[in-house]
């Protein structure tokens, strides 16, 4: 799965390249699409189109080209977001975040072949039960035990932890058993030496992903994933 790329522009360094879809065949494009649910009943569809398979070369859809997402008989048009040349297309659905909810994301073109059938289905939702927002957990002296509901699936799970006094840590869950442990010492201080003895709020993000089927008309490939994403903030102590 390729990450969604955010471009930073500097005076002497080349940044992202944006190209109009009118100047590009579908066979010369790749697409990275995610459908993400956060447990609130909302699901967000995000699509990025790239020149060939270059993650920093973005395609802006020209007049006559559009991206849509469909689920349970409802179709929504994706709207463009452009942040410092980082172009994506987004829309949202309500109440279509349950296990097995099926999404189809289509690129429709008037001047070239369309890519109408990128599909994915939502994995099972879950709730993080530990750590808790009221808890305080030592980075250096205690393992951090993570527990969540609806374990036992075949879908890959990954985690990350970040905070003002914690360096970003990432990992994968080797067995979706509803619990796993982040060993003591895995979360390390961030920034100056003073942070080693600081307590701050840290955020755990837990993601369950299921790969879908990308439309083959994207000649340069890409990916489509459906994800259940949950976050919990806790106190990270020395």
How are the SSEs ordered, and which strands pair?
Elements: E1 17-20, E2 29-37, E3 42-51, E4 57-60, E5 66-71, E6 74-77, E7 79-83, E8 86-94, E9 102-108, E10 115-121, E11 128-130, E12 136-138, E13 144-148, E14 157-163, E15 166-173, E16 179-182, E17 200-211, E18 222-237
Parallel strand pairs: 1-4, 2-18, 12-18
Antiparallel strand pairs: 2-3, 3-8, 5-6, 5-9, 7-8, 9-10, 11-13, 13-16, 14-15, 14-17, 17-18
What's the gist of this structure?
With 238 residues, the chain is mainly β.
- Provide the residue-averaged pLDDT: 92
Structural class, by secondary structure, is: mainly beta
* Annotation, overall tally of beta strands: 18
Shape: elongated
* First and last CA, distance: 34 Å
Task: Write down the secondary-structure element order.
Answer: EEEEEEEEEEEEEEEEEE
Uncertain runs are: 8-14
Architecture overview:
By secondary structure, the protein is mostly beta strands. 0% of the residues lie in helices and 52% in strands. It is built from no helices and 18 strands. The strands form four sheets. Strands 2, 3, 7, 8, 12, 14, 15, 17 and 18 form a nine-stranded mixed β-sheet that branches. Strands 6-5-9-10 form a four-stranded antiparallel β-sheet, with no helix packed on it. The chain has a three-stranded antiparallel β-sheet with strand order 11-13-16, with no helix packed on it. About 3% of the residues have low confidence.
